[in-house]
Amino acid sequence: MKHILDLDRYPLDKEGSDAWQAMVARAVADLDAQGMFNLEGFVRPDAVQKLVAHIKPVMDAQSYTHKRLHNIYFQPEIPGLEANHPALRKVETVNHTLCADQISDSMVLSIYQYPPFARFLAATMGKPQLHVMQDPLACANVMAYRSGEALNWHFDRSEFTTTLLLQAPEIGGEFEYRSDLRSANDPNYAGVAELLEGRDPQVKRIQLRAGTLNVFRGKNTAHRVTPVKGPIDRFIAVFSYYEKPGVRFSDAERLGFYGRAG
């Protein structure tokens, strides 16, 4: 794994050491302050290049195009809100997805299944343990965004989202987010509407570099990826871990996300 991950800079393999503890502490501090942490250069540059060279032809030939209009909640309706409420304004997301069974020989799965990686993530999130997903399609995905395509405003269903940027576009593809837009006790529909109308001054934007690990607390923080521009696609790997073992998607969920159940 040392030829793929920069274990000198990010010593996942030295669990419990002073260097490992310091790495976890920095990540926790960033999560508390910003709702995310980024490990730039997590994957070595030569490994990123090899990974993209392996993924791109598969992406071009086999990926599932997911295009849909949705609201920020990814729900058909929200109890208590009229269908025309500005917080339910429709936006469009377009991306191209490879499932785990299509990249079974890729370094993406090697990283995802590396036990010290899951233990590090659990430590940063204050969890006793995290388990890889047992779904053969959904456990790890690679998504591409081509020119004019974007991941639009949404809240995540899970508490944390773990992604690895494999290729950045020339222009666009920036990560925008609005921290703590809602809470468990306050859905803040007025604030959601303000965001969707482009009137929220607290929106932040970052541009990630290829090889960067991003761990993001997105359940109550709205976020999106701005449209990609130019001939270079944005490639990103998405990793799914759970506190309980054996998690799988239903056939209906697989059909909705990937166009197939198996």
Describe the overall structure.
Helix content is 26%, strand content 25%. α1 crosses α4. The protein starts with 17 loop residues before the first helix and ends with a helix. The strands form 4 sheets. It has a 7-stranded antiparallel sheet with strand order 1-11-7-14-5-3-2. It has a 4-stranded antiparallel sheet with strand order 6-12-9-10, covered by helices on one side. The protein has one domain (18-258): q2cbj1_9rhob like domain (Jelly Rolls), CATH 2.60.120. The chain has helices at 18-34, 45-62, 107-112, 115-125, 189-196, 251-258, and strands at residues 36-39, 64-70, 91-98, 131-132, 140-145, 151-154, 161-167, 171-172, 175-178, 204-206, 213-216, 222-225, 228-229, 234-239, 241-242. The model has no long low-confidence stretch (mean pLDDT 96).
